[in-house]
Amino acid sequence: MAVQVSIPKGTRDFNPTEMSKRNYIFDNIKQIFKKYGYQAIETPAMENLSTLLGKYGDEGDKLLFKILNSGNYLGKLEKTEISEDKISEITNLISEKGLRYDLTVPFARYIVQHRNEISFPFKRFQIQPVWRADKPQKGRYREFFQCDVDVIGSNSLYNEFELMQIIDDVFDVLDLNITIKINNRKILAGIAEAIGETDKFAPITVAIDKIDKAGIEKVIEELKQNGLTDSAIEKLKPVLEIKRNTQESIVFLEQMLENSQVGIQGIAEIKTVFEYINKFPVKSAVELDLSLARGLNYYTGAIFEVKSNDVEIGSICGGGRYDDLTAIFGLKDISGVGISFGADRIYDVMSQLDKFPEETNISSDVLFINFGKTEEEKCIEIANHLRKNGISCEIFPQKAKMDKQFKYANNKNIPYVIVIGEDELKNDTATIKNMKAGTQSNIEQTLIVDEFKKLL
Asked: Which of 449, 442, 440 is nearest to 428 (CA)?
């Protein structure tokens, strides 16, 4: 009886065609990061739970994948300790490590741990997988890649503008039509103050961050469950319900938050970012969205989200400024700002819109047909010359029927086939077949490299 094999829900295998498309995304993003002077780092897949817990809010902590201690992980437990009301305590005893939830908190840990080796401001990018024990659904996975870019050690708002330029460049080269949404956590803190609910700032931001997915009625219901008064909710409704353009939103906020010092500071920061955009416009649409909250606790200033204009899916990029994250690990007064590109959602959007170039499906540029030992040796000689000149090619590994070898080329989307049979060997020639056009030509073997430099 065959064994049934599977992978965990929320994870995926990727075939060669899918990997070619994913690498197209990664390579383009990486190239743009480097263009702006960012350098690559990597951190471990697992971190100490003491590093991760408490950085993402209560909901984030629940989504952490925890790793059982090696060896006798039950050694610290007494049978009398095992009960449902002590789950958290038990978890702490049997698990000291967890899979990273994002790349930002590990980056903050990295900064603190390596601060004596780093020159500030430090500009880094990181492209690695993260894990969340979330409910799998369309566009939401338990294992997925993030492409993060951050600058830390500078509180200049120029950094926010530069990140928006990076967003614009990435989606321009990927040919995706997007809108960049921006808000500021100081503005949200000012709104909480203006409605008389300063002490409920965290649940307010967590709730309103769900507006796009849950709708305003469910958000209001959640706010009530968190203890907001009807009066406070009525004052909050104009912020969430009324759609305004950026300038109208700023005027509205200046009136609503005139008595909030933190709110006024947030407005000033937003206005500075838009001054950059007005002087040096980006191609993408940019709008101030007062319902944007980004429910992660560590954001303190500007926050960003990017939405596809053509596909109904969640955020495909997001981030913001964090002033206090390294202080949690003992290093104070280090401000940072960063964004994260959701490679998996970007892949889904590009697939749905058929935005991947045709060449991403090509595995090799050339296939040599194999007629046997003598012909194979000539193919190896020419293939070595092609590879030295940057042209990818492969030789069918054994003699086989022509139909089988041509079918192999078609299945791998190889655009050209070189045939060197008995006649070609005698005449020092080769037949080149264009698999897409169905045409073929005969050429001297010494001219093959130059010919493919023209063709490719």
From this structure: 442
What's the pTM?
Answer: 0.86
Q: Which fold has domain 16-64+101-352?
A: BirA Bifunctional Protein; domain 2 (3.30.930)
The pLDDT, as a whole number, for residue 210 is 79
Distance CA 292, CA 379 (A): 60
User: How high is the pLDDT of residue 74?
Assistant: 67
What are the structure tokens assigned to 232, written together? 């406070």
DSSP readout, 145-200? EEEEEEEES---THHHHHHHHHHHHHHHHTT--EEEEEEEHHHHHHHHHHTT-GGG
Locate the domains of the chain by residue range: 16-64+101-352, 363-455
Q: Are the C-beta atoms of residues 203 and 384 closer than 8 Å to each other?
A: no
User: What residues have CB less than 8 Å from 385, skipping those under 6 apart?
Assistant: 448, 449
In CATH, what number does 363-455 get? 3.40.50.800
Least Cα distance to 365 among 393, 384, 390 occurs for 393
- Give the pLDDT means over successive 10-residue stretches in the chain (456 positions): 85 93 96 98 95 83 87 62 60 83 93 94 96 85 94 96 98 97 94 88 80 79 85 84 84 92 96 97 94 80 96 92 86 93 93 92 93 96 97 96 96 95 95 95 96 93
How far apart, in whole angstroms, are the C-alpha atoms of residue 287 and residue 249?
10
User: Rounded to whole angstroms, what are the CA distances from 388 to 7, 45, 288, 385, 449?
Assistant: 40, 37, 52, 5, 10
Q: Which two tokens stand for residue 348?
A: 């889904």
The count of other CB atoms within 10 Å of the CB of residue 306 is 26
CA angle 107, 110, 115 (to 5 degrees): 125
